[in-house]
Amino acid sequence: MKVGILGLGYWGPNLVRNFLSNKQITKVYGCDANSKRTDLISQKFPGVETFNNYDSLLKSDVDIIAIATPVDTHFKFAKEALESGRHIWVEKPFTSTSEQAKELLEIAEVKNLKIFVDHTFIYTGAVQKIRELIDHGELGKIRYFDSVRINLGLFQHDVNVIWDLAPHDLSIMFYTMPGLTPKAVAANGIANYYQHENVAHLSVYFEENCFAHFHVNWTSPVKIRRMLLGGDKKMCVFDDMENFEKIKIYDSGVEMNSKEKIHEALVQYRIGDMYSPKVNSTEALSLGVSEFLTAINENRNPLTSGYDGLNVVRILEASDLSIKKHGQLIELK
């Protein structure tokens, strides 16, 4: 297969490198309106042919178009790619609205094309291990999901901090909590510097008496990438800033023994051993490329498909409504 990478800024060169290294890819093209970016790609990857306009890429012989441009351009470029008969890879978040996502999915279904949304963290060894532990019942029933993703920068000109940072952890939430259905969203945030919120808190409520919370911040003096999953058997801490023990499993929990009257309930805390399982260290983006190409060959949806992208966008949309209404609970249809 042949692939064209649209957008050669921050993330585009990583896509070029990973598609080039996959044996199923016979040709990689690069496309960006900025000639300095295409020149850099040509210098670093001499075998990559480059274009400075999208029409030239669409007229080429590519089978796949990977879109790594600002989110407000995703729908336009993705729709044109699908209508021209190409499979698409789209960076997160998938689209600016859920209606846009639905339209792209409808086109892909009619034309039997595949959509891959780059929720990269799903392909990390750590998140794969967490899902494995959950599937094996080691954590038990998930009670809560608590995530912190904060750092100093980078401010985005087109979206707020929730749209920029939360898609990572929302995608992990959906992947590690299969079968749980979000029912409502509440969000609070503040814009200290320009029109987009730079600090925000997002809460997601589930039908199964489960809760997820996300803290995102562009203006933190420290960088934290940590999430907790609390199960009724064990608890899991995933710290992406750790070089070695990224996952720690705690045999800890709460046991409630109630008598006849609720105020006489006895709360007992269980604190047991902790261990850190070994995780696969293969680059996540490389695994994502392999999964997408395999899905195309097998005529199936990839692990992170357009439907997963839609699920995340629905939460992001609801968060915007809630922030505008100062944290009002927004029911999900």
Written account of the structure:
The protein has helices spanning 12-20, 35-44, 54-58, 71-83, 98-111, 125-135, 161-176, 284-298, 306-324, and strands at residues 2-6, 27-31, 49-51, 64-67, 87-91, 115-118, 142-152, 182-190, 199-206, 211-217, 219-231, 235-239, 247-257, 266-275, 330-331. It is an alpha/beta fold and 333 residues long. The longest helix has 19 residues, at 306-324. Helix 4 links the parallel strand 4 (64-67) and strand 5. It folds into 2 domains: 2-121 and 285-303, NAD(P)-binding Rossmann-like Domain (Rossmann fold, 3-Layer(aba) Sandwich), CATH 3.40.50; 124-280 and 314-331, 2-Layer Sandwich (Dihydrodipicolinate Reductase, domain 2). It is globular, with a radius of gyration of 21 Å. The strands form 2 sheets. A 9-stranded mixed beta sheet has the order 14-13-12-11-7-10-9-8-15. A 6-stranded parallel beta sheet has the order 3-2-1-4-5-6, sandwiched between helices. It contains 9 helices and 15 strands.
